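Fig. S4 source data, part A: sequence.
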Amino acid sequence: MQDLDLFILEDVTIVNESGSSRLCEVEGRRFWIPVAQILPGSEVHRVGDRGRLVLARMSWIDAAERAAAMGDRLRGPSSPPRRESDDVLVVDDAEVISEGRRATLCKRGTHRFWVPNARILPGSEIRNNGDRGRLVVERWLAVHLGL
């Protein structure tokens, strides 16, 4: 197993939680982090906790991109970047549990995960509460979501 390149954020506050994800805030920016990506050495785990957050560098890149995508100026899902077929992953049998302005809570089996709306790619059959079917996302995102 290769060594992880760690990224440590100080003065992080957990402001909300939903299922297996935590909404974190640091320096006025908010971003969702799956609990599975929060590494040992973190001091924040539940709503109201404030302190150190330890992530793998790739997790931080994912979170930073999510924060940018969920910022004041959202990139609309109607114009996602074109991807080569090797860069996408099709997740069959996904279900939308909750839809938000910026992200959609999905489920596959017992696994729940948040997908930024701007990261749901063409070819996806799910968008609204209760939809079931195919979800198409970038491969790197699928890996970080545990899909």
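Fig. S4 source data, part B ends here. The CA atoms of residues 3 and 56 lie 10 Å apart.
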